[in-house]
Amino acid sequence: MKFVDEFRDPELGRVAAAEILSLVEPGRHYKFMEVCGGHTHSIYKYGVDDLLPANVELVHGPGCPVCVIPMGRVDDGIALAHQPGVIFTCFGDMLRVPGSNGSLLEAKAAGADVRMVYSPLDALRIAKQNPDREVVFFAIGFETTAPSTALTLKRARTEKVANFSCMCSHVTIVPPLRALLESPDLRLDGFIGPGHVSTVVGARPFEFIPSDYGKPVVIAGFEPLDILQAIAMILRQLRDGQCRVENQYKRVVPYEGNLKALEVMSEVFGLRPHFEWRGLGFISHSGLRLSNAYAEYDAEQRFAVPGVRVADPKACQCGEVLKGVIKPWECKVFGTACTPERPIGTCMVSSEGACAAYYNFGRFAREREVV
Amino acid sequence: MSCGSEHCITCGDDGTPMTIVAVDPDRGLALCEDADGFHHTVESALVAPVTPGQSLLVHAGTAIARLGTEMLA
């Protein structure tokens, strides 16, 4: 398909890999973070890291929206799903995220009406089809997904769908990046920026990374050639002593973002003073809530939500994986007690999670290395 | 578009290229076809105006960008 096949061309991939090899400085170790879970998935799926020189290391960042949802938030969702008359809707990966006492899928098995949807629009459709029920949409995701929720809430208001509400758990990408950059246990040489978040917010929000922290950022697409090109662009900046935000994904990302999306988001959402991230703790102004203008659609105001805080399981090292401090296979329970079938931590649940991506695609290569 | 074990494009920061088959500008919706030939109803308000034949990047049922050709040259 156009816009896809060109960026999976093996010959062009080999050319990009050769360029990367020509750009690395012998004896220097490079550590780049791919911010987005979609990049992590592609890197493992297509074996991008196998094409890199040994001294170029990729660190997997916090950009999987499922992986960063804390346990207490899952518990709140389950509590809502068990309310009489409620149809609880959410994206597929969210169903399997473990709370302190089971997942939404287990709540469904126990009798709660939990339904998977592909878009917020599907949840609104369910609300229109069930006017005698309350339909709650568990809204997760970064700025890529937030406009979709915002448009759906506007549509709910226009179409006067009163039995629809939203449990807003949307997060924003810049505050956790700043928190990571302030972390003393992480040394990075550059960032592969999130392609589709940038489609909405543009490239400008990432300018603080080169200006305040002296690290280059290259916003990249999700095909293997996109990622290889982005790595080459970061290396070229480092070789030439430059440090700025570059856009490899120009076929999709305008520098100023999608202004219509930003406008609808600012109308429907406001910033929470702080929001809890799994493994990263509370980060100021990193989560979205519904604005006062849309408070009537806020499930947390419409229903009693426990709002409990639950500590992550002790055996789980998702936090260190999300910060890039350890690799997935270095976690004590990776692939043994924690597998995609029976996940302990969220990084093993979503296919964008570093642990699940590595378990599904990368572990075989590692087994070969060990042998 | 699936939430199978391989990849959940809805949940991740991911997007799917789709081609517009028909538009309903009054409702801000477009009927789009993905690479496998499946049809989807897509919110098109963020990239309006759109016309049949255009390529869109779709995430969670919403078109977030029109696909250009700058990098393909």
Structure description:
The complex is a heterodimer of chains A (371) and B (73). By secondary structure, chain A is α/β, with parallel strands linked by helices. Helices cover 37% and strands 18% of the residues of chain A. In chain A, helix 1 (10-23) runs parallel beside helix 10, helix 2 (37-46) runs parallel beside helix 14 (354-370) and helix 6 (146-158) crosses helix 11 (259-268). In chain A, the strands form four sheets. A five-stranded parallel sheet of chain A has the order 2-1-7-8-9. In chain A, strands 4-3-5-6 form a four-stranded parallel sheet, with helices on both faces. In chain A, strands 10-13 form a two-stranded antiparallel sheet. Chain A has helices at residues 10-23, 37-46, 71-81, 104-109, 120-129, 146-158, 174-182, 195-201, 208-213, 224-239, 259-268, 299-302, 318-322, 354-370, and strands spanning 30-36, 56-63, 86-90, 113-116, 134-141, 164-170, 190-194, 217-220, 245-247, 269-271, 274-277, 281-284, 288-290. The longest helix of chain A is centred in the C-terminal third of the chain and has 17 residues, at 354-370. Chain B is mostly beta strands and 73 residues long. Chain B contains no helices and five strands. In chain B, strand 4 (55-59) and strand 5 form a beta hairpin. The chains are: A alpha/beta (371), B mainly beta (73). Chains A and B meet through helix 2, helix 5, helix 6, helix 8 and helix 11 of A and strand 4 and strand 5 of B.
